[in-house]
Amino acid sequence: MTLERIGWKLVMALFLGAMVLQARSQPNTAVPVIFVHGNGDDSAKWIGIIWLFESNGYPADKLFAVRFPHPNSRADDSRDEINRSSTTDEAAELSAFVTRVLIQTHARKVALVGSSRGGLTIRNYLLHGGSANVAYALLSGTPNHGVLATDKNQGGEFNGKGNFLTALNSPSSDGSEVVSGVRMMTLRSDKLDKYAQPTGIAFGTPQMATGVTFEGPALRGASNVMLPNLDHRELAFYPTAFAEMYKFITGTSPQRRSVTPEDNPTLSGLITGFENGAFTNLPVSGAHLSIYPIDTAKGIESSTPAYETTTKEDGRWGSFQAASVQEYDFDLEYQGRHVHFYKAPLPRSTTLLNLRFMPVPRTAESGSAAQISQILIARPQGYFSRERDAVQIDGKLSTDEPSGLPLLDSFVAKVPAISGKLTQVTLRNETIWARPSEDFSKELPIVDFLW
Fold first, then answer.
1. What are the DSSP calls for 116-158, one per residue?
2. Is the N or C terminus of the chain more exposed, i.e. has fewer CB atoms within 10 Å?
3. Domain named AFL C-terminal: which ranges (predicted)?
4. What's the CATH superfamily of 24-250?
């Protein structure tokens, strides 16, 4: 063999090796991803995560989020409860949604990403015929071994000793707790997941042993990842969790952990409500939505809406072309009450901006009698803990924010009663201006953080 031929073979080998390495470094974005929300939640929870996937080049037409009409579980899975769903209801609805996505995208399999109860729904679907349609399943903060394990209430969906979880966790011959043929990952916290605690602190009974551990979300046979200092919801909705999701599905780490803004995002969604003591994702007809711009430089709200509509039977609103640097008040009027969702600038388009007509918080005080104003500060994608993430109101630490283990996703904050004045609320790197209320039964202002 001549030196020339040896040289050409060496060049070709190096070239082919480089091609293989390049192929391995390219993210696999061919698989449609379906995000599955948890107990009492809706598809809007996934807006930030979907934006992060899009910002890293994942095709928007391959990102989906299911919305269950009755997202709350039953006290006993075997007994009907109005406006609540059984484990079978949820799995059947997920099955129909997966089928629709497969037909729409012409894909052979999907990836499923679930938060909390959504992860149990995924496992139930996989166990009962769905595994052939799924390539990846990722469970975030899912109480796979229960929020408690007790011999009582065998019909409880979240009972580690109950009928449902016992069936899901029945090990195979090799001791695995996962369905074969599907790559599975779990994300859990170190000690901050309220539903993976050895005591009943999340239920107000810290002296009670739950029978579960911090490792409860992990599954034998899955890739189990621990993300320190994240709470129950952050395990699904925080950028740190996103990075694990993206790498698990695409095979590469994301280049960005922040959202790439669009110039003029288009927003739309659904108006939903609260019935018989449970949140629903059913459409509300006859709700009037007005969207008012906020001038953050002057701390004032425009009196002229940039958009307004009254919902029809389908409950839908939009589309509204927003500015990606503009704060807005989403003023929802229904049955003589106003619910205001004050939001930081929304950087990208979404069809999932669902707004719930919220009831009056139980912790609200009579503002007019006490000469105070109040704001409901909400963090749907996480929980509050004063020691971990202090909320500031007009530059001062809020004394109303819950402390200790992150357990609550909202709290009522009291501010001085100054008529018409907007209040500035900051959490981490997110700041929102809002107008407090002296009477939540008429005007409920919600500072609605994304992260």
1. THHHHHHHHHIIIIIGGGEEEEEEES--TT-SB--SS-TT-TT
2. N
3. 267-356
4. Alpha/Beta hydrolase fold, catalytic domain (3.40.50.1820)
